[in-house]
Amino acid sequence: MEEIKKEIIEKVILVAVADQDTTEAEESLDELEELVKTAGAEVAARVIQVRETPHPGTYIGKGKIDEVNALLYGTDATGIVCDDELSPAQISNLEEALDTKVMDRTLIILDIFAKRAFTREGKIQVELAQLKYRASKLTGQGRALSRLGGGIGTRGPGEKKLEMDRRLIRTRISRLKAELRDVVKHREVQRKQRQKNHLPVVCIVGYTNAGKSTLLNHFTNAGVYEEDQLFATLDPTTKSLDLSGGQTILMTDTVGFIRKLPHHLVEAFKSTLEEAKYSDLILHVVDASNPQKEKQMEAVYDTLKQLGANESPIITAFNKIDLLNGDEILKDPNAEAVVRISGKNGEGTDQLLEQIEKILQKQKLYLEKLYGYQEAGKIQLIRSHGQLLKEEYRDDGIYVEAYIPKEILGSI
């Protein structure tokens, strides 16, 4: 049984190019190794070539190609994974030089997304991203795509039609875009309905495996799948949550970000990721225990900027503080508030909700008004959509102090 298991699991060699300082390349390969494991393979060896830029024809130079060739033979590896997105020529030349399967970081991420997409929207978005990636790799490869076999990097449309020509791919992409437009329309209707109901939306963003789903489950009992692995959840989930002041908000979980997030994915998942753009507040969850947290935060903010979603106020929740040793200083100059939490045991989550309520309150208008008893229905509107601070029954009417969304001012 053990032998069968070993035959099934692929072994790959990780390859990266770095300048004189290889620290960043090592960190990036650590993450790539996690991606490869998530995709279902094992890492047999790692190779870093020190050079100013990747070789335009083969990504790495001839000496390193010989070294990788020897490692392939010595470790029985079945392929290599390069840490950058490769050009069609680089893939073709490397395959010819090494006589093995050549993959890049983008392909591995797409492969994981294909495995994790369960909803119709998720599947459409992943296939669209995959086809755009495949289309960009057709130049110079001809029928080479037909050489792809089983294992990682081959899920999704690649299994259905390995020899699609450009015309067929363009046709399929057009159909998928039309399907996605329908899904996007449905999402926009839902968004407008939320706006009509004046429910504030808090969008949870963060690096993959920062603990976003764990936090959403803690607050709303959403039942979202959570696991200590990259991209454990792909499809967004929205749940309502009642704050202590009586206000109801909507919390939306989004797909995790990552360094070198493929532009095909950003484009395909734009409708999903844009939830952050239209939110009233962004809750940025950071894995405080990760030594690379500053770079991960930078990757999140870069992606938000790409989406035009960097205008909403931000609260940064440094998660997993139960894994920290000592009282490490945690800060984020981009955030209006910073909170230390543990989504796993609930530490600091009450303070987080207080900060959410406080910042959302800043976006509301303060109201003091005496309503006649015949206008009692307006007070119910305040209670439903705002935060009722004081309700006092007097001889001449009902005195109210409240914070209200500016959208309902005309109605009350």
From TrEMBL:
Q: Which GO terms describe its molecular function?
A: GTP binding; GTPase activity; metal ion binding; ribosome binding
Does the record carry Cell membrane as a key word? no
Q: Which cofactor does it need?
A: Mg(2+)
Q: Which InterPro entries has this protein been placed in?
A: G_HFLX_dom, GTP-bd, GTP-bd_M, GTPase_HflX, GTPase_HflX_N, GTPase_HflX_N_sf, P-loop_NTPase, Small_GTP-bd
Protein residues bound to Mg(2+):
S213, T233
Residues in coiled coil: 15-42
- Give a Pfam family name: GTP-bdg_M
Q: Where does GTP bind?
A: 206-213, 231-235, 253-256, 319-322, 342-344
Show where the Hflx-type G domain sits: 200-364
Subunit-level organization: Monomer. Associates with the 50S ribosomal subunit.
- Which family would the database say this protein is a member of? Belongs to the TRAFAC class OBG-HflX-like GTPase superfamily. HflX GTPase family.
Q: Per its UniProt record, what HAMAP family does this chain match?
A: GTPase_HflX
Q: What is the name listed in the Swiss-Prot or TrEMBL entry for this protein?
A: GTPase HflX
Q: Which organism is it from?
A: Anaerostipes hadrus
The uppermost taxa in this organism's lineage are: Bacteria, Bacillati, Bacillota, Clostridia, Lachnospirales
